[in-house]
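Record 1 of the preview.
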Amino acid sequence: MAIIAFIGTGVMGGPIAGHLAKAGHSLIVYNRTREKAERWAATYGGTVADSPQSAATNADVVISCAGNDDDLASITLGRDGAFRAMKKGALYIDHATVSARIARQLSVEADSLGLLFVDAPVTGGEAGAVNGTLSIMCGGKPKAVEAARPIMEAYSSRITHIGGPGAGQTAKMVNQIAIAGVIQSLAEALRFAQAADLDTDKVFEAISGGAASSWQMTNRWATMARDEFDFGFAVDWMRKDLSLAIDEARANGATLPLAAMVEQYYADVQKMGGSRQDTSALVRRIPK
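->
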């Protein structure tokens, strides 16, 4: 069993860390809002640290699940960052969705310090974290990914090594691009059915077993029809993820016209007060 420093015990990180504790690992947790870390420790045991640096001291593995590029840079390289405290040969796994650029940078920094680094964004949402069924996309050197695999198996159903440093983050961008288009088309289809005065439950019954079916249709058609949007992954996060994909496309030469359009549609939803609603709130900007 490993000594694991876990940074970020929020909606996703808290359940993930819980699975590690249940698996028998020894955890030291840190959260920017200390009360969240204390609540986690009261439930699962473990120790609460005052900083990423103090959490990482003597840890075999450090895992982070928090924030954006700036947050990750502070957690790893900042004045109280984890990298300066980690022992040689220790492993760092990052589960946040950030830019491929910072993932590649941190891999280089880790190499220089004798550390292993894996960028490992996840998909599966809060339910996947709670149930331990996340899918994980890994970027990094083979040695690092293989070291991370037995740790990540405690809370995942699928682990895929995509490629070198940054490849995990780039694969997560692919995931978000694909989802964005599906949600927009689902929103348009639902509003079309409503405008035609069709029974949306019967429409779902008719089309959900065929080629039009998707995870989004199965899980969000009915709630979208009822104007319910409190089901996990927030509009703010999706817009951030699409912005990362659009920035990466500028660098690699890809064209993302639909993703760029939907990113702006999510900006409309934010202006409507939907920042913390789930991604299916995209339908709100289409009049009934």
